Amino acid sequence: xxxxxxxxxxxxxxxxxxxxxxxxxxxxxxxxxxxxxxxxxxxxxxxxxxxxxxxxxxxxxxxxxxxxxxxxxxxxxxxxxxxxxxxxxxxxxxxxxxxxxxxxxxxxxxxxxxxxxxxxxxxxxxxxxxxxxxxx
Length: 136
What we know:
Layout: H1 2-16, H2 20-41, H3 44-50, E1 51-64, E2 73-84, E3 90-99, E4 104-114, E5 130-134
Parallel strand pairs: 1-5
Antiparallel strand pairs: 1-2, 2-3, 3-4
């Protein structure tokens, strides 16, 4: 009887997904890991000529799902990565979804695009933007 109770609690906990704080923490971790991969993937010449002194990312979009949509994916996020000189006018947008059963963020889209107008005037060397800035 006790084994069934423990199993039922475990299944219930897995079905509930992750708390929002845990999802946001994991999003920051995958964002930082992806930023490191992006920067380390640049050629030495590109790093010397076009890399920002302090590359950073921001949470551009974040949404938690409810109802039927949340059965498989609990949340969606888009991160904007700024690592190239502003004169190039480019940033990388990566989209993620939080897999409820695996309790992990999955990247499903990567696009290099012109810097959106809402970020065009941002100070690229501002250390407070090192993954800390979030927009709901």
